[in-house]
Amino acid sequence: MPGSLKVYPLNNYGAVEVGVHRFFKLTPGKPEQLVEVSQFTHVWKKEEESGWKLSRVLSYDHRLTD
């Protein structure tokens, strides 16, 4: 969701990224419909040889919309 993304450094490891997901239902011939909103946390590891690698993914606080 625009404006929700935040990234924080993790010393000697990488970074943690947090924000908000929005999930939409797609039905042919109809406008997309927002059905769920949730929080996410991604942990990134900085590796010397291969660069940034996604280490852990959490998706939580799922809330259905009306």
Question: Would you spell out the secondary-structure blueprint of this structure?
Answer:
Elements: E1 6-10, E2 14-25, E3 33-47, E4 51-64
Q: Which tags fit this structure?
A:
4-stranded antiparallel sheet, single chain, mainly beta, 66 residues
Give the spatial strand order of the biggest sheet: 1-2-3-4
Structure class: mainly beta
Write the H/E string, N to C.
EEEE
In the predicted model, the low-confidence regions spanning at least 5 consecutive residues are none
What is the number of independent domains?
A: 1
Q: Span between N and C termini? A: 18 Å
Radius of gyration: 16 Å
- Portion of residues in helices? under 10%
How would you sum up this structure in a few lines?
The protein contains no helices and 4 strands. It has 66 residues and is mainly β. The chain has one domain.
Structure description:
This protein is mainly beta. The protein has one domain. It is 0% helix and 70% strand. The chain contains no helices and 4 strands. A 4-stranded antiparallel beta sheet has the order 1-2-3-4, with no helix packed on it. β2 and β3 form a beta hairpin. The mean pLDDT is 95.
